[in-house]
Amino acid sequence: MSAVTVVSAGAPDRRPVHPDRGLARTVIRPHQSALWFWGLLVALIGGGLLWAAGPGLDAAWTGYLKSGCAETDYCEPGPAYHRYDLLVTLGPAALTVVPALIGAWAGGSLIGRELESGTARLAWTQSVAPAHWLAAKLAVPAALIVSGTVLLTLLNRLVWWREEALRHAVGTRDWFDHTTFTGSGTLATAYALLALAVGVVAGLLLRRSLPALAAGSAGTLALMIALQGYRERLWPVVEAHSATPEPRWTGALIDQGVVTASGDRLSNMLCEQDDCGRGDVVGYWTEYHPSSHFWPLQLVETGIVLAVTGLLVLASFHLLRRRTGGMS
């Protein structure tokens, strides 16, 4: 064996680490506790939903049939149903709360703390360009957030698909309920990414961990409330007409009212009587979203949320460029 061979065999492995891979590890290392929390949250909720879609649903359905609820309007479906109902309620509810937590973490820990402590400045001046640093701060958490929320969304949809008979029998959970609507489609992932962008902007603006934490959470909630307030207007409603006060329709009620002899359409949503005490009512109307509007409403709102997220990401790079003075 030659000397060259011996030296080569004894030399340490100095294979270069890809810079993007090393930067990703640098992003993850200070936030391992948040990563463990996220993984545990996804595992617990995901495991609960898997149980609910299988043995939980079977036990709940068996308990419902044995309780005699099929023959009466009001009854006690049993403890098995209550355990099942708790888990399938918590799943979508968790996905509606997660964005506020992400916004707080992104503002306070991901960005605000590093700017406050000077860690970010040190990285910029030694090895990492500010734009690459911010790109990694956005991309690495986004990949983890998307993988978790997509998994939980798919499990929510599995439960929704499997429980159809029980849901109709008991009369719980409509598709347009807030948590069900958000947690059973593309919106859960879109709002989680929006929260990440809001938190990053808050951190870059405030540069201090605690104020950025509060601003990230509050900003996320404010945007979610504002965007969801227009949900019913994102797709044309269906209108049903009837000669009786109870026209046949199923779905999310938007408005309803009466038609007078003169042809006027008046809303009776706030009236104590169907005809609002008028004597010239000749018909009734109802505006609603049927279940077939679930995906159109989901996709339109998702597109709006992602557009706002994109604008916030652009704003974050603009803020960083102003802060660093174009540092390369």
From TrEMBL:
Q: Which domain of life is it from?
A: Bacteria
The record's keywords, sorted A to Z, are:
Membrane, Transmembrane, Transmembrane helix
This chain's protein is named: ABC transporter permease
Q: Where are the transmembrane segments?
A: 35-54, 86-112, 133-155, 188-206, 213-230, 299-320
